């Protein structure tokens, strides 16, 4: 047995040494690729440039994958693999995998298109398909949102790309409509004067576009008058909540009535009912 091993070593020692050297070199390349990929991801994540926050996760992922691919090519070259033939094989395999994972690839394509067209950026508040949230991240497959009540939403990129996207942040300002009902017996002009005075005294509202007051609708029990004003995004909700409170209080102070829904009932007596039935028979 010992002589057989010695003979095997004598015949194949050079091959074994070369193979062991190549294996050690391959392991070293894998370790180096892993370290370089992590370093590249951290460097991109910590970069202080004008690069949008939504692009950083995607670029860091692509860069790390590229490092691993380059390391894999070096390893294949060490073992003498014909990379040209391998590329053709990978291409054929990639076609089959692409057909099997068409939905996943569509998410990647949609993510790329979202980053090119840029309908939203990091920290924008958006709505699509009934979902609302603040954009935190766009990666290769999903877009990460945070809802107003702190929930985490990971939505496939093709869901966003295939829907209308409403961006509440992009224009920097938003319009708010404050509607209050007054009685039909009240003066509409007095109601307008109350709303205009409130708009003029609120510093968080924009001068342009100018505030507007109008009759929004006339319903069964009230005339709905509306205050239409604009505010910056950061002031929108605080101003909206405060204005609703102030409008209610100011309407009451001005002596105007905010009516409740009401219905008038006409009670018909027995004699009248008989007369109505008699007339109905004649007809």
How can the largest sheet be summarized? 5 strands, antiparallel
- Name the strands of the widest sheet in spatial order: 4-3-2-1-5
Q: Compute the average pLDDT.
A: 82
Global structural class: alpha+beta
Number of helical elements: 8
Strand residue content: 15-25%
N- and C-termini, Cα separation: 124 Å
How many domains make up the coordinates?
A: 3
Count the E strands: 8
Going by CATH, the architecture of the largest domain would be Orthogonal Bundle
Low-confidence stretches: none
CATH topology of the largest domain: Helix Hairpins
- Helix and strand element order: HHHHEEEEHEEHEEHH
Oligomer: single chain
- Measured on Cα atoms, how large is the radius of gyration? 36 Å
The CATH C-level name of the largest domain is Mainly Alpha
DSSP helix fraction: 40-55%
Shape: elongated
Domain Mechanosensitive ion channel MscS: 103-170
Organism: Shewanella litoralis
Keywords: Cell inner membrane, Cell membrane, Ion channel, Ion transport, Membrane, Transmembrane, Transmembrane helix, Transport
Membrane topology: Multi-pass membrane protein
Defining traits:
283 residues; alpha+beta; Helix Hairpins; Alpha-Beta Plaits; elongated
Describe the protein:
The chain is of the alpha+beta class and 283 residues long. The chain has 3 domains: 2-100, Helix Hairpins (Orthogonal Bundle), CATH 1.10.287; 119-167, SH3 type barrels, CATH 2.30.30.60; 173-253, Alpha-Beta Plaits (2-Layer Sandwich), CATH 3.30.70.100. It is 54% helix and 18% strand. It has a 5-stranded antiparallel beta sheet with strand order 4-3-2-1-5. A 3-stranded antiparallel beta sheet has the order 6-8-7, covered by helices on one side. A hairpin with a 4-residue loop joins strand 7 (212-218) and strand 8. The longest helix has 44 residues, at 2-45. The radius of gyration is 36 Å and the shape is elongated. The N and C termini lie far apart (124 Å). The model has no long low-confidence stretch (mean pLDDT 82).
